[in-house]
Write a structure and sequence with these properties.
Largest interface: A-B, 23 and 23 residues
Largest sheet of chain A: 2 strands, antiparallel
Radius of gyration of chain A: 18 Å
Helix content of chain A: over 70%
Number of helices of chain A: 9
Strand order of the largest sheet of chain A: 1-2
CATH superfamily of the largest domain in chain A: GntR ligand-binding domain-like
GO molecular function, one term (chains A, B): DNA-binding transcription factor activity
Oligomer: homodimer
Keywords (chains A, B): DNA-binding, Transcription, Transcription regulation
Distance between the termini of chain A: 26 Å
Organism (chains A, B): Lysinibacillus antri
Structural class of chain A: mainly alpha
InterPro entries (chains A, B): AsnC-type_HTH_dom, GntR_C, TF_FadR/GntR_C, Tscrpt_reg_HTH_GntR, WH-like_DNA-bd_sf, WH_DNA-bd_sf
Protein name (chains A, B): GntR family transcriptional regulator
Number of strands of chain A: 2
CATH topology of the largest domain in chain A: Four Helix Bundle (Hemerythrin (Met), subunit A)
DNA sequence: TTGTAAAATAGTTCATTCAAAAGTATGAGG
DNA sequence: CCTCATACTTTTGAATGAACTATTTTACAA
């Protein structure tokens, strides 16, 4: 997880709360109480309130509670993400530089072994590198925002050892390297669909 | 423009500032001064600050200034929007109910004549109805957020009487009615591309 | 018990305050 | 006349207090 960038109280509050949600320290549905958060973070209520407003807009907090994605939410996020990634990957297959291809390959390899954190991180890097090829900062930013929500369940994929994750990434990488946009896009779509299905299986178990 | 929903000071501040940005009362680049805003709205600085945090996350405020889209921003937003709308319109062409088709037709007709506000509003309704057919609340919400930015320049299209806007909407409507997803999608793409080009011409003129 | 009203407690909202930072004007020295 | 240091002003950041609201607990009657 990212280290909090605490240039001021508001930022500290924002980063701290956000991290706690993403790492699962604050679990879905938990009621957020300004004063307690303020105390814990070591700032006053004002910056906490500002942080909450921002996180509300970001979707991680709803009605003073930690957002808990429903099954429908997961499906919808996945659909949206698929749209963006499949678009970006076509551009990637057409334009990705040799240098970026190297980074991409590294991300694939890094996700083969290691701790959960390492795998999640390499996994995210893989997808980020592809989205970056959209060359569209607005799209990149939107995808990043969605990541917050995805992060919550990406961990589940790893923790539960979703099979073939590595193999699929290899296939996708090869399609990009071979400059085959349509194939890459199809593989990505299938890959994300598998993620979703795997996710849903586990989500239902909890519920 | 939407009427402010002032159930509390924070909401009042948020809606007021947002509206002022969208209507152009607060123009791009303007420095926002908390105290002056607070005074004008009739609340204290605290809720104003919360509103600003939220608007920052929404993209309408950046570094305490009213967001002023650059040409690159306009191009990127347009690309993103095109991606979403072309996706949604295929679903629309496949699934739109007869009832919704009626509303869509009405939106097309309403945008033929009337005041600028009326045309802008009908125009937005047309696009919203199509996006709604994605049946994906997350996508709908994202598109809505982008609308805030688009609104700023959609007005320009009307004010400057972009030609063929009505005719293109008719063509798109017909493609949906005829249940031709690929055609509809292509027409939408061309339509949005024309919007963009027209926009760029005017944007360059200003600066 | 069970339901309900009153009281107590906890939490939120907003205004106010003060300190720190940023910005601006003024004037002395080049 | 320009430049830079210094004083002054404006603006922001953050804490706190007071008023209001919601929630929980308690107490008592049915």
């Amino acid at each position: 997880m990212q280290v909090a960038n605490a240039s001021n109280a508001y930022r500290l509050a924002y980063e701290t709360i956000r991290n706690q949600i993403l790492t699962g320290e604050l679990t879905g549905g938990t009621k957020l109480i300004e004063e307690r958060l303020a105390q814990k973070i070591g700032v006053s209520r004002t910056p906490v309130r500002e942080a909450i407003r921002r996180l509300e807009q970001e979707g991680l907090i709803q009605e003073k509670r930690v957002y808990k994605p429903t099954i429908a939410d997961i499906i919808h996020s996945s659909e949206f993400r698929t749209l963006i990634e499949c678009y970006a990957i076509k551009k990637a297959a057409n334009n990705m530089s040799e240098e970026n291809l190297k980074y991409l390959k590294q991300a694939v390899l890094d996700a083969k072994t290691g701790s959960v954190e390492e795998i999640v991180s390499a996994n995210n890097r893989f997808h980020s590198l592809i989205i970056a090829e959209s060359n569209n900062p607005i799209m990149i930013q939107e995808a990043k925002k969605m990541d917050a929500i995805f992060y919550l369940f990406n961990r589940t994929l790893i923790l539960n050892k979703r099979p073939l994750l590595y193999e699929e990434h290899v296939q996708i990488y090869k399609a990009i390297e071979a400059r085959k946009p349509e194939l890459a896009s199809r593989l990505m779509k299938e890959h994300l669909e598998c993620d979703l299905q795997f996710m849903l299986r586990y989500t239902r178990k909890y519920k």
